[in-house]
Amino acid sequence: MISLLCRLLTNLIGRLPASPLNGVVTALDGLDSMMGWLNWVVPFKACFAIMSAWCACLAVWYVYKHLKSIIMKLI
Fold first, then answer.
1. Helices vs strands, H then E, count in the chain
2. pLDDT tens digits, residue range 36-74?
3. DSSP string spanning the chain?
């Protein structure tokens, strides 16, 4: 049963069209060799970690704010 489901999903995924971003991805492969040097100037990994933490904090704040307003309406 599982193998039938896997074959069905594989067949379905095989019928999907190719990604329209393939040309963009191959064009960015040239930047791969420069990323090591560029990371000395702009620490992308640290920037990504800080931005992810900031977005998580904003999400928690908006959920808290929304739940607080719902609870206040019920009271």
1. 4, 0
2. 777 788 888 889 899 999 999 999 999 999 999 999 999
3. -HHHHHHHHHHHHHTSPPPTTHHHHHHHGGGGGTHHHHHHHS-HHHHHHHHHHHHHHHHHHHHHHHHHHHHHHH-
CA-based angle 18:20:24, to the nearest 5? 125
What confidence score (pLDDT) does residue 13 get? 87
Residue 17: Cβ within 10 Å count: 5
User: What is residue 16's predicted lDDT score, i.e. its pLDDT?
Assistant: 83
Give the up-direction half-sphere exposure of residue 42: CA atoms within 13 A in the CB hemisphere.
6
Contacts of 20-23 with CB under 8 Å at 24 or more apart are: none
CA distance linking residue 56 with residue 40, whole number of Å: 27
